[in-house]
Amino acid sequence: MTLTEVGESRINGYLFILERSLRSFLPRETAADAVREVESHIRERCDQAEASPDERTTIERVLA
């Protein structure tokens, strides 16, 4: 699935919040590594998802 600008924004927002949360109890580099790993999994799942007219539902399912 190719993400729209809105889809990219949703994923980036999720990752931003995740990193801020992780940095509250992990060193900055450790949190950044974890976020990169999670982002790679999210993007892989989005790439494997079939194209859908309802991108939002697909992204929310991946993030859940």
> Gap between N and C termini, in Å?
17 Å
| Rg computed from alpha carbons, rounded to a whole number of angstroms | 13 Å
The averaged pLDDT comes out at 94
Structural class: mainly alpha
Give the overall form.
Answer: elongated
Query: What is the percentage of strand-forming residues?
Result: under 5%
Order of helices and strands: HHH
The total of helices stands at: 3
Largest sheet: none
Q: What are the low-pLDDT stretches, counting only 5+ consecutive residues below 50?
A: none
Number of strand segments: 0
Helix content: over 70%
Structure in words:
By secondary structure, this protein is an all-alpha fold. It is 77% helix and 0% strand. It contains 3 helices and no strands. Helix 1 runs antiparallel to helix 2 (28-48) and helix 1 packs parallel to helix 3 (55-63). It starts with a helix and ends with a helix. The mean pLDDT is 94.
Write a concise keyword list for the protein shown above.
64 residues; mainly alpha; 3 helices; elongated
Offer a concise description of the structure:
The protein is mostly helical. It has helices at 5-23, 28-48, 55-63.
Fold blueprint:
Layout: H1 5-23, H2 28-48, H3 55-63
